[in-house]
Write a structure and sequence with these properties.
alpha/beta; globular; single chain
């Protein structure tokens, strides 16, 4: 089954509201009487997640994205940064928080914390956290699938069994906080993609400056011993034959 409805897919905004507005204008979206950008031919945006962290206008980004979704001009799914935020703010029954408040995790979330630093804004932020729980982890539309990182059928089947409408629950988040659980594995793959371990002694710094010993399995990798050109690293590494990912995330 196919649909004549056209979509514009936009991902990883990370608080860059001005750039998002410029992109929408370039794509011919214009504000309606309520200020919601709409396309004259009734195209819809599908936002692919990662609305928060890093950028200078996180609150404005959330206002724009949610306004379009609530106004029927867009659809949106969850990204790993929204998932991390939910875990960061949910208490762990065993103590602390589901996403530990250690330096790297706080640093990744700093720009979002700064964007909602007053008491009034903090209440608004908690409303956005509740809104994140309404966003699905993936969308399957006529002729189109949308996911933040990896459409892995087995993991998505498991998630559909656990989550009505593929929307997170607090109880699922609590189970998914522990590596080795099926909930953790499913969330990791769908929201972050599969990773392969780098050969011994090789690391690279990601865009947040964190040293990594694993890297995402690229879409062009067959995940069966294929060669992957590495991303631009801080620590130089060379292309090698990588270990198997066990199963292709793109099957």
């Amino acid at each position: 089954m196919t649909s004549n409805l056209m979509y514009d897919l936009i991902g990883d905004i990370h608080g860059h509201a001005d750039e998002l507005q410029a992109l929408l204008t370039y794509l011919d979206y214009r504000p309606d009487a309520a200020g919601i950008p709409r396309h004259p031919a009734s195209r819809q945006v599908i936002f692919l997640g990662d609305y928060i962290d890093r950028g200078p206008k996180i609150r404005e980004t959330l206002q724009l994205v949610r306004g379009m979704v609530d106004g029927g001009a867009a659809l949106a799914i969850l990204g790993n940064h929204e998932y991390n935020a939910l875990a960061f703010w949910q208490q762990d029954p065993a103590g602390g928080y589901l996403r530990p408040h250690k330096p790297n995790n706080i640093l990744q979330h700093t720009e979002t914390l700064k964007a909602f630093r007053s008491a009034e804004l903090f209440r608004e932020w908690h409303a956005y956290l509740e809104w994140f729980l309404t966003l699905p982890l993936a969308l399957e539309l006529p002729g189109l699938r949308a996911v933040h990182a990896c459409w892995q059928p087995e993991q998505l089947t498991f998630l559909r069994q656990q989550l009505p409408g593929l929307r997170l629950t607090r109880s699922f988040l609590a189970r998914a906080a522990y590596p080795g659980t099926p909930e953790f594995e499913a969330a990791e793959v769908v929201l972050k993609g599969r990773e392969v371990r780098l050969p011994d002694g090789l690391t690279f710094a990601d865009k947040d400056g964190h040293v990594r010993r694993q890297m995402p399995c690229a879409a062009r990798c067959a995940c069966a011993g294929g060669k992957i050109p590495p991303p631009p690293p801080t620590t130089p590494i060379t292309s090698k034959t990588w270990p198997s990912c066990a199963a292709s995330p793109w099957s």
